Amino acid sequence: MRRIKALVALASFFAMTAVTAQSPAFDLERGTVTLNSGYEMPILGIGTYTLSSAQAENSVYWALRAGMRLIDTARIYGNEEGVGRGIQRAIKDGICTRGEIFVTTKMWTSDFSDGDAAVDASLKRLGLDYIDLMILHHSQASNDVAAYKAMDRAVKAGKLRSIGLSNYYEPGDFDRLVKATSIKPALLQNETHPYHQSGTMKAHIAQYGTVMESWYPLGGRGHTKQLFDDPTISKIAKAYGKSAAQVILRWQIQAGNIAIPGSSNEKHIIEDHAIWDFSLTDEEMKKIADLVKAQSPNIIILGGDYVSGHKYDKNLIENMAMKIMAIGVPVYAVLGESDWESNGKDISRMLKINGIQLLENDFKRIIIKNRYVNIVGIADLKTRQPNLSRAIPRSQYQKIIITHNPDIYYDIMESSSIFFASQCSPP
Hints:
The protein is of the alpha/beta class and about 425 residues long. About 40% of the residues lie in helices and about 15% in strands. The strands form four sheets. Strands 4-5-6-7-8-9-10-11 form an eight-stranded parallel β-sheet. Strands 14-13-12-15 form a four-stranded parallel β-sheet.
């Protein structure tokens, strides 16, 4: 039996190292796609971001009972144990078998330094003998290659079946990791929905046989209601007697994007799964594709208040970093002189392990070099750092929002232009 498992793992390894000319085609009849690892993956499932462990347990159970077979979680979500319990409940009740379920989890940036231990810890929390897909949660050039190689070793050991990436938004960044590793990513999970369609990255990853998976497939970050109310989507939904959510999810899978809508509401979960009895025409697909907008910011800049307001607490900073980095763009931080003098080295270390790059009087270079147009920043404008409003030509943005609202996170979610928070308490 060990020999058979070893051969299967070896075959999987060689399959994942091959580069194909295009992303695998979706089988809309079966509701699956065969990854470049050789494994079959459902193209519609349940996401568990923001769910508590108890909520995740119920949502996973309801999703499996509704017919979904794809489950998405992450270490940083804090609900892997609940996901595992939901799976075991469904298996015990005869709803499905372990072999019919496809489980995805993610390795958080602060775990990249010991990826082998991170894999084992997720297996233990999930209560599983293997994980179908593990992905790195965010790009982190300092040590993401080492973390990816740890997942590579786990594939060979039979602990993981497929591996991939999340929140890699630049072709060069994606290629950097691919060139340094042997197994091609089976999947890239990025923000993807009708207003933000990930066209550049989707076209780029096709050469590796990598498929796109959408987090926030229904919009998220304040866009869900906008999408549900969009006249084009509403008109199509009315024509089919479907909800806007169902039309968007159907668009996702027909467009070649795996979708993992999240919900703690059983009725919504059942509704999300009921998209197999209709299909969109080419004309309708084009109309939705034409809705693409430049909604996402290119960069987030955190000021000293962010870290000093958290009293340099590792757990608080990690939790907030997870929420901010879920926006899916590069995150930088700046510190004033007082922060440097009091705890500069400790702050720098905590930011780094959570994937946040510390800038030292470097605003202008970062902005000009990358030609950022939509910038979201949380910056203390009273520090001795360069004033961002002077560093960025005003012609590059439409408006600046200056706020003293302590709930910074939600202001970011609502803003698609430039955002400065001056002397704010952190979220």
